[in-house]
Structures are given as C-alpha cells and as structure tokens.
Amino acid sequence: MAKGLDIDHLAKLARLNLTAEEKVLYSNQLTHVLTYFETLAKADLPAVSDVAMVVSEKALRSDEPGVSLGSDAVTKIAPASHDGQISVPRVVDDES
Amino acid sequence: MSNEWEIVIGLEVHVQLHTRSKVFASSSWGFGKEPNEQVDPVVLGLPGTLPVVNREAVEKAILFGLVVDAEIPEQCAWDRKNYFYPDNPKNYQLTQKDFPVTMGGKVEIELPGAARNIMGEHKWIRLHHAHLEEDVGKLSHSGSGSLVDYNRAGVPLLEIVTEPDLRSSAEASAFLNALVAKLTQAGVADCDMEKGQLRCDANVSVRRMGDTQLGTRTETKNLNSISGVRDCIIYESKRQIAQIEAGHKITQETRGWNAEMSRGYVLRDKEDAHDYRYFPDPDIPTLKISRETVNRLKKHVPEAPFDRQRRYIEKLNLPYTAAAVLIADKALADWFEAAVAAHPTNAAGIANWAANDLLRELSAQSGTEVGSDETPAVKVSLDSCLIKPAQLAGLVKLTDEGVISKQQAKEVFTEMFSTGKDALAIVEAKGLRQNSDTAELEKIVAEVIADPAVAKSIAEYRAGNEKAINALKGPIMKRTQGKANPVMIDQLLRKLLG
Fold it and tell me: Which ipTM was obtained for this model?
C-alpha cells in the first residue's frame, strides 16, 4: 500500500460506509494511482518553470451578471427537493 | 476576570465583496432572493464547466490590501479545499492557501474612552494575510432533513486573518468596527451583518500574565455580529481559565456559538475537518498581478478614518465627539468638508450641526438607529438630504454674524431640512433678522431699565450678582419680538447699568 493511505480515514472524510471487501478493493485501486504518481515524480525531467500556468489580468472576467439556471432546473437535477431547496440528510451540528 | 490571565485573540473575518456577479461564475447574487434562483452550472461544478475569476473581485481584494498597507504579491493562486458537506455542491471550496492576494497589513483601532467625549487609546493590529475565496451555500434544518440553498455559493468572500494581537473582547469589537469602516469607506464591501455579509471566526487562548508561549487555542466558528464576537470571547476565555485553574488541559477544538443562550459548544462534526487535502486548482491558472493595476487602485484608497479624525481635531479644532461621529460615515464627512469649504472660519460650528441636528433628522427620516452596536458605521443616506453643504454653511455664517440667534437657527434649520430653502431666504420670509440697530435697541433697553418691575434685579446686579442681569433680557426680547441680537442686548445693558 502507498505510504500514508488510510482507507478508513478517507472513507470517513468522504462520508462513505465501506464493506470489508470494498476497503480492500479501493485500497488497491488507490495504491495503483498513487504508485503511478510516485513513478512520475521520480522521472528525471529538465527544470521547467510553471510559466505556462501563469496568466495576466487579461484572463479575468468582467463583473457582468450572466444567466442563472433558475430553481426549477437546479432542483430537477437534485435527488430530492422541497420548496425550491435541495433536500439532504440532516447534517446539523447541534449544540451538544 | 482575574488579572493574572492574559487573553490572546486572533480573528478570521469573512467579508462578502461588493460585486454584481459571483467570484468564479457569472451568476448574479444578492440578499433576499428565492432559494436557488442565483445558481448556474459553474456554481454547481457541473461536468464540463470551468471557473473564470471575476476581475472586480480581485481588484476589490487588492484595494483592501492597499487600504490596510498590505503587500500585494506579484502572483496569487487558488487551491481546492476538499470536504464533503452539502453546503458546497463541488465537494471542494476554491480558496487561496499558499499564495493569497494580500500579505501582512495593519489596522488602527480605537478603544472606548473613559467617557463618551474622551478619546480612548489607539493601537495597531497586524494582519497576517487576506485571501479571496468563494462563499458556500446556506443550510437550514427541519426535522429529519436539511435543506440547501446555493444562492450564496460562489459569492466572492475575502477572508481577512489577523495576527494574535487582540487582548480583550473590547479590542476585538474595536477592531471589527475599524475594519468595517475601512471596508465600507473604500467601497470594498457593504458589511451588512444582518444580511450575513460579515462573519467571523474567533481563535481564543489564555495564558498567565508574563508568559511568552501561546496557550492552546480553540476556534469558535460563524459569529455573525460584533456583539456575538464580544460575548463569545468573554465566555470562552472564562471557560478556559476555569478549566486550567481546575487542573484540566485545554483541548484544541472547533466550537460553535449559541447566540440566544450566550454560550459555546463543541462542534463534534468538525473533529476531522482539518484534513482538507488542499491541492492547487488545475482549472484556474496562477494570476500575475501587474504593478500598473496596483498603482491604479492606489488612487482609490480613501483617507484612513483615524487620520481624518486626527486632522479634524488638530487642524479644524473639532471636539473629539463630533470628529468621531463624522469620520464613521465617509459620505457625511465629505459633506461636512464641503460645508467647511464654504465657510472655513467655523468648522466646529458646522460639525456641531452635521454631527447632531443633521444626523438626528436624517436617521429619524430613514428610521435607523444612530451608532448602535450592530451598525457601527452610521447608516444614513445623504442622497435624499434637501440641505446642501453650502446651505448649512450659510446658516452657520448667519449665526456667526449675529443676524439670527442660536435659538432662531434651530427653527431655520428645521425649515431648511424640510424644504431645502436657503437660510437667508427663510430668515427674511419669517422676519427673523435680529434687530441690530443700536440706537433703536438702546432706546428699548433704557425703557426696560426704567421699569420699576426690574429695579430689584438691577440692584442685585450692581451689588455684584452677575446673573441678575439675565432677568432684564426677557422683557427686552419680548418688546423686540425676539429679534434683538442677544450679544448686543448684553453689551448695552452693561453699558447703561454702568
């Protein structure tokens, strides 16, 4: 397993309940992904600056309001809704 | 509170920037819209969408940096803060972790004085940085479920992080008031706390006086009023001191605040929340901030409120109270200065009208309470004010020249406020011009002195009772129908009574 991969912790952060089988399956898959990146990181590459990823202010957008979807369209793509709002399981951080 | 303890506070202030569209999406935003009406595919992070940064939001953030003397780095960049919570449809919040838009900076604060008319101590609070991020959606809870409104998601949010420089709840309140004044006066943000445009997290720790190491801190999230921040700091510091004095250790934890009950509580849900697995957002390139932009924005930095206050007190000889009221509202202070330009010899007189009578009438008109805790910046609109600065200057000039008395000026002011007429026109129309014809007035004064009814007062005055002279002024005013110049009456009485 790749260094630092803790499937229980990741599952908790992602709010997923995984079975024992799933834990093994996903651990292996994630380890493959991480190993791939470790291989990439080891590659001996010339020092390339990140300049291609830097843009000037020309790349910014002017502050012009555009079109909104409307609540009907938004709630239609949600699993559940109520009065224009999206319904989710209760997530309140109650005073305890 | 025991004097053995020092409270150490750092604040994270989240401010919605004054823009028309969202920070990475073009959807409009504003308070009081129907749920999910201001949402577009970029806000929802739907597949195939790309965020594009709003220039106005970046420039407002830079302007803030200039207002607080912060460094504006050559580049800023955005990161993904990953977490799974329904207030964010993308499962990550776009924020700036390593390359924020402003670094450092400082804010001058003024603590309450010993009395309302005495200026309190001034102090500088250092800022660590400010970063530009997106606000998250709003959750409401009912029964077994929660409801999500994404109108607020993607609203440009500037998170201003202080150094742990604050030492009391009073300093925290003073800081927030000073910050709000700077943000609103520069047009960076409106800071309407009732609309949630300014929210605060408070990091609080305590240590024994003289200790140099910081104690373990707790973070109380989502305080949405200045009084909430103040109450939370008092509560949390007392709680921590009691814990330590009872032999317990402080747990580093995230806490919530129940404003109704005035008490804090542990947010168990946030226990693992620090593990946000930040990484650079691949959709938004690093932004190079040109020095031309920085220099252009520098021209929009208004005079700092406390610099203005010092100038009013030192150069214009205003009393502290009037200066403090005027500088709290840039529009009012600008208005006042325009009036002073029209009558430069009595700035204090003009300030007295502007800070008291004018402000009182304006707030009565708009129905806002002046200087309440939640609206530290006096919120009145001068747009609908019928009196123009030069007209108030005209009123003060008439009083200074003795054309009308101070009492009459009040009457003239009321009429000016409701009609917008010039002071002089009102004085002439009402026949209020004070009688300054010395010969005529001297005759009346002589007649009043000769009246046996006032003989007793005259005797008392001559015997050394200065105040007895006032008893003669009433009958003179009555005979001149209030038009006599009080200063001249006083002079004539003293002359004739020898």
Answer: 0.84
